[in-house]
Structure formats: structure tokens, C-alpha cells
Amino acid sequence: MVKNTPLIFEISEKGRVGYSLPKPLYPEYSVDTLDFSLLREELPNLPETSELNVIRHFTNISKLNFGVENGFYPLGSCTMKYNPKINEEIASMGIFNRLHPYQSVSSVQGVLKIYDELQRMLSNLSGLDEFSLNPYAGAHGELTGLMIMKKYHEDRQDFKRTKVLVPDSAHGTNPASATVCGLESVEIKSNIHGKVDLDSLKAALNDEIAGIMLTNPNTLGIFESDIAEIAKLVHEAGGLLYYDGANMNALLGVSRPGDMGFDICHINLHKTFSTPHGGGGPGSGPVGVKKHLAHLLPNPRVKKQDEYFYIENSKEAIGQISSFFGNFKVWLRAYVYILTLGKENIVNVGPYAVLNANYVKERLKEDYLLPIKGFCMHECVFDGLVDQSTGVRTLDVAKRILDFGMHAPTIYFPLLFHQSIMIEPTETESLLALNHFVDVMKKIAVEAKENPDLVKSAPHTTPISRIDEVFAAKRMILTYKDYLDAQLDTE
Questions:
Q1: Which of 25, 262, 481, 485 could form a disulfide with 241 if both were Cys (CB 3.0 to 4.6 A apart)?
Q2: 3-state per-residue secondary structure call for the chain
Q3: What is the pLDDT tens value at each position of the chain, 491 positions in all?
Q4: CA–CA separation, 336 vs 347, rounded Å?
Q5: What b-and-e string marks burial along 86-95, b requiring 16 or more CB atoms within 10 Å of the CB?
Q6: Using an 8 Å Cβ cutoff, are 53 and 18 in contact?
Q7: How far is Cα 19 from Cα 47, in angstroms, rounded to an integer?
Q8: pTM of the entire structure?
Q9: What are the residues whose beta carbons fall under 8 Å from the beta carbon of 293, sequence distance 6 or more?
Q10: Are 241 and 229 in contact (CB under 8 A)?
Q11: What domains can be seen in the chain, in order of their start residue?
């Protein structure tokens, strides 16, 4: 149970009512007119409480949420950065809330114009020629991109190309998306510098390779400086290059995937272009392609003739991968974000993100093990504490961070290191915030030496203290009955 926060059932009082219903408008239609086979045999177990207590309960519960507006949120590879409120204000406008996907095309010309302008902005920022905004999320964008890659080869009657190269530092969704698409993943090793090993790449290239999926910078926060050579090798082997845009925050305004030789890419609007995505959604993963692949983009497509926008469904496309045009409100927020920054300011996003990550890395490298030395991009990765003699693990450090009012970084990813701590400050954090985070991390490193039990038993100040993670995973408490059963088991 959450400390000092009872469940709604625990404040329930028999006979207490917090609402009143109006008299029925059509009294002739009552419960007696229903088919009795449709009725419950007993009343549902619902809490009985007053309106005031309901309000207090859910207000208190809401205070338990943590987000980027509560404190520092350095969740690496997820770009949890501040979302300007103007984005939310525009997305909440009634004119957008009342839209319906089956409206006539003539009545939504403004929306289609936003779609067209946003995909052109993304093309300009990424170096790809055309985009579809239809995919619902990053992994959905990956699948869409791979479907384009697969159909490209099939249209050329090159059916033997069924393998996709995936670096060992890749996001886990990469091989998963390949499998869902009916392609086989082939792992490419990293070298001692954390980059794609060119010898491993060359050994894997053959006429069965459909392409390679690559994140640049990669999940170690390191720029793949051999990208031009990688592109040359893959293209010469007949494959395509797919860009996983999860880490594009580091490149924004400085470098473009299309200029590196990528043929296909997805962009996480809910990361790079600042739209909220905590708690599992919402997301948006637009997919961009070079001209020679544009005809394969999914239906429906937004097209323009003179000043009129219309919808096109092409027989050459991979098909339809989403309902209508994807998550409209997410790409609307991204549209506002880009316009608000403008050309003169968006060029600062990447540099500030990189500056903040390197600042954190340099200040923490004496206390936390830096497995790969040198310059990083938007995120830095440590391999646990420098001094691990007391048995304090990365998980313990992450739990202890919570006691200081901050969210923990990503831990145990990337999988290349046993005690990975991935930190992404993003460009929106101030020097004041970064210094506070660094001070906390250094304090925890000292505690790990002088009082390891304090760190191993953390967190101490959060609503829920240390939990049995194995038990929590095997026996999830999803209902009030589950909660009561768990209470009995612990007594």
C-alpha cells in the first residue's frame, strides 16, 4: 500500500452516496424491459463514498505521479524533455478536438495543410525526400520502414534478400521489428570504441542482405564516424540503410541522416520533437524515404494540386498501416514545436543536448566507470560505480536517486555492459539542474563506500519503499481482491 494514501475501497462507507441521478426521461424503458440473461446476478463491488472524498482521493493520487515538470528526468535513449505549454494549448483547441476522420476532404483542408507542411519540415531536417506521418510510434515506424525495404526488393524480384543487419548495440525493437516483418536479424559486433566493427560488417554482407538498421549516434551515445563507409559497403552489396531515429535529438540542426546515405528513416516525434509520451503513449513515428522509395510509402497519402489537398491511395504502396493518418494530436504538437523554435533556434537543439551530456560525463567519470573514453553525443553510458567492492549495484544507485526527487536514468541498457547507467540530460536542462544531479550522484557514490546498506535498501522517502521485484513481476496486484490476497499472504 502507498504510504498515507489509502485505496478508494478503504475509505468506502456502506450507504455513502456521492451522486444523484435525474429522473429517467423515458420511464417506460426500465430494467424490467431488459432480457434478464443480460443482468448481473449480484451488484458489482464498487466503493461507496462521498463526492468530496472522491475528489480528495484522486487529487492525492495524482500527486504521486512523476514527470519532467516535477524534477530531473534523465531517462537515456527516451529523450524525456520539457514539452512547451504552447504545444498543449494548440492541441487542446476545440477546432481540433471536434474533427472526425470521415469528414469530407474539402472541410479539413487546414488539417491536410498541416500534414503536408510538417512532412516537408521533417524532410528538410532529416535529408529524406518524402514522409508519411501515419505510423503510431517508433517501433511502428520501424516496421513500416522494413516493410518498405522488403517490398523494394520484392518488386525487383530479389526474393532472397531476407536478412537485416542489426548492431549488437541496437535498440531491442530493431530485431523485434525485423522478425514481425518476416525478416531475419543478423547481429553485427561493435569494436572496442563502441562503433560498428567494419570487419564484422564486411563478413556479413552478401546477396541475402536486405539492409542494415542503424542508430546514429548509437545507444552508447557515440557517433558512428564510419557511416560513409558503412553506407558505401551496404549499397554496393545491394542493401538499403534504415535509420532508427530514436537518437536524432543529438543531430537536430547539425547533421541529417539523408546526407549520411540512409534510404529510410523513422523519427520519434514524441522524443525529438517534444510531445509527451510517458506511461506508454501517445507516440508518433513518421517514416521518411529517398525519392526512389517514395511510391512505397503507406496509404493514405496527402497530395497537393495547386492549392487544394486531396487523399490518394496507391496500388504501389505497402498498404495501409494505421487507421486514417496516425496520431494527429502528436504531430500537431511537433508542428507547433518546430514553428516556435524556427530555423534560427532549432539548430541549437543538438549542440546543447551534446554539451549537457558531455558535461555530466566529465563530472562523473571519477566516481562512475566510463567504459568508452572520449567524446559522447546526447547521452553518456557508465558501467556502474568505479568502486564496486561493497556490492552496490546499478539498480541500488537508481533506487537511491529517487530519494532526492529525481527520476532514475535508464539502467542495464545497452546490454554491452553489465552495470549500464545511461544518462540523457537533453537540451532543456539548465546548468543548475545538471549540477544538482551530479552532486546527488557523487553523494551516492560516497554512500556506497561508507554506508552501502543505506543505498542497497533505497528508496526511503518515496510513497512505496523497496519492493520484491521478482514477486512484483510474478504476482501483479491489479484489483482490490489481488491487494487483499497479498495482504493476507504477508500476515
A1: 262
A2: CCCCCCCHHHHCCCCCCCCCCCCCCCCCCCHHHCCHHHCCCCCCCCCCCCHHHHHHHHHHHHCCCCCCCCCCCCECCCCCCCCCHHHHHHHCCHHHHCCCCCCCHHHHHHHHHHHHHHHHHHHHHHCCCEEECCCCCHHHHHHHHHHHHHHHHHHCCCCCCCEEEEECCCCCHHHHHHHHCCCEEEEECECCCCCECHHHHHHHCCCCEEEEEECCCCCCCCCCCCHHHHHHHHHHCCCEEEEEECCHHHCCCCCCHHHHCCCEEEECCCCCCCCCCHHHCCCCCCEEECHHHHHHCCECEEEEECCEEEEECCCCCCCECCCCCCCHHHHHHHHHHHHHHHHHHHCCHHHHHHHHHHHHHHHHCCCECCCCCCCCCCCEEEECECCCCCCCCHHHHHHHHHCCCCCCCEECCCCCCCCEEEECCCCCCCHHHHHHHHHHHHHHHHHHHHCHHHHHCCCCCCCCCCCCHHHHHHCCCCCHHHHHHHHHHHC
A3: 466 778 899 999 998 988 888 887 877 766 667 788 888 888 888 899 999 999 999 999 888 888 888 899 999 878 888 889 999 999 999 999 889 989 999 999 999 999 999 999 999 999 999 999 999 989 999 999 999 999 999 999 999 999 999 999 888 899 999 999 999 999 999 999 999 999 999 999 999 999 999 999 999 999 999 999 999 999 999 999 999 999 999 999 899 999 999 999 999 998 899 877 766 667 899 999 999 999 999 999 999 999 999 999 999 999 999 988 899 999 999 999 999 999 999 999 999 999 999 999 999 999 999 999 999 999 999 999 999 999 999 999 999 999 999 999 999 999 889 999 999 999 999 999 999 999 999 999 999 999 999 999 999 999 888 888 888 888 888 888 888 887 777 66
A4: 16
A5: ebeebbeeee
A6: yes
A7: 13
A8: 0.90
A9: 148, 152, 240, 263, 264
A10: no
A11: 8-62 (no CATH), 99-346 (3.40.640.10), 349-462 (3.90.1150.10)
Q: Cell digits for 444?
A: 551516492
Residue 236 and residue 230: Cα distance in Å, rounded? Answer: 10
**How many whole angstroms separate alpha carbon 287 and alpha carbon 266?**
4
What is the residue whose three cell numbers read 477546432? Answer: 95
Pairing of strands 240-245, 209-214: parallel
143: left (phi over 0), alpha (psi -120 to 50) or beta: alpha
Residue labelled with grid coordinates 504477508: 490
- Nearest alpha carbon to residue 227 among 195, 200, 251: 195
